[in-house]
Amino acid sequence: MERVYNFSAGPACLPIEVLKQAQDDFISYGNSGMNVMEMSHRSKEYQDIIDTAEADLRDLMNIPDNYSVLFLQGGASLQFAMVPLNLMTKYKKAHFVKTGQWAKKAIEQAKKFGEANVVASSEDKTFSYIPQLNADMFTPDADYVHITSNNTIYGTRFTKLPPVGDLPLVSDMSSCILSEEINVADYALIYAGAQKNIGPAGVTIVIIRNDLIGHAPDSVPTMLNYKTYADNGSMFNTPPTYAIYIAGLVFKHLKKLGGVGEMEKINKEKAAMLYEFIDNSPLFQATVEPKYRSLMNVPFITGSEELDKEFVAGAKKAGLVNLKGHRSVGGMRASIYNAMPESGVRELIAYMAKFEAEHK
Ligand code: PMP
């Protein structure tokens, strides 16, 4: 069976080099005589794996020393609740920018613990843009500001920081972490489920400024308190050992390719190629205004549900899979994370051109 080009929004494709490395290690990791998933998380071998993964991520993202890197479970969805549980401590209020379904879910969870104040929303136009933000929206009577840096379903992204002043900025970077260079110090907390740009589902990365750890009320369960993870090297209990190991392989791979700056360059080229084709197409249309377009998730439509269906089915036959848009948007969506090679984007464009010619 040949590999396909997998445009899934997540779980998404992984670099073939990483899969091969995992295959090499499968029966026995190094001299251990066992697979990593069979290994005690308290063993020296495993400690090396998690320490190296953290060090490589710190390197890749230039994470300052006053930030902790935590490996959690529960997906980005658990962070929708953990962030307010841990951070809504003084004003019991946070500002939210509502840019899609994931932001909405974060808002719903925050409401359980305090006031979730929506400062701006793009819901009026099916979340096809990022709302204009200005400094007076972010009143200082809030514990933090929450944004979704890249909106996986709608294919939009923040291209500049919201003017939050001194307020801690929290971002859901599930679908854009490691795709372009950012300054971690601009954020108080970054979280991301792994299954798009990092590795397998099951591990969630939290990067948190240390002064924000340790303020959760006593009523917060131990496993929902960031302090538990920070104090115990993410090993208060058994972490998702295998997912962290694969994430570590991805980090090594990214370093070998030249790091996040290099990925950003490639991602911009891949996205530009695809958007340019769509913008010049008599058949396909992009759904997002150019200035808000995501580098990772590219939604497009033909304008006819029938044709969309035919497109997706034909693409699958051509080895280009998971191009169906999210059920709430319809149409198509090509997710082109770090691990999607340029050749995959070229093949997609070639198929689109062929489809277009057949449907003049
Ligand atoms: N936030 C964003 C931006 C996402 O794309 C997703 C998943 N598609 C989630 C949160 C939810 O992630 P999880 O399934 O890991 O809870």
UniProtKB/TrEMBL annotation:
GO terms for molecular function: O-phospho-L-serine:2-oxoglutarate aminotransferase activity; pyridoxal phosphate binding. L-glutamate binds at R42. Keywords: Amino-acid biosynthesis, Aminotransferase, Cytoplasm, Pyridoxal phosphate, Serine biosynthesis, Transferase. It is an enzyme of class 2 (transferase). Pyridoxal 5'-phosphate binds at A76, S77, W102, T152, D172, Q195, N237, T238. One of its GO terms (biological process) is L-serine biosynthetic process. Its EC number is 2.6.1.52. CDD domains: PSAT_like. Pathway: Amino-acid biosynthesis; L-serine biosynthesis; L-serine from 3-phospho-D-glycerate: step 2/3. It is found in: Cytoplasm. InterPro entries: Aminotrans_V_dom (IPR000192), Pser_aminoTfrase (IPR022278), PyrdxlP-dep_Trfase (IPR015424), PyrdxlP-dep_Trfase_major (IPR015421), PyrdxlP-dep_Trfase_small (IPR015422). Belongs to the class-V pyridoxal-phosphate-dependent aminotransferase family. SerC subfamily. Catalyzes the reversible conversion of 3-phosphohydroxypyruvate to phosphoserine and of 3-hydroxy-2-oxo-4-phosphonooxybutanoate to phosphohydroxythreonine. HAMAP family: SerC_aminotrans_5. This is Phosphoserine aminotransferase. It comes from Christensenella hongkongensis.
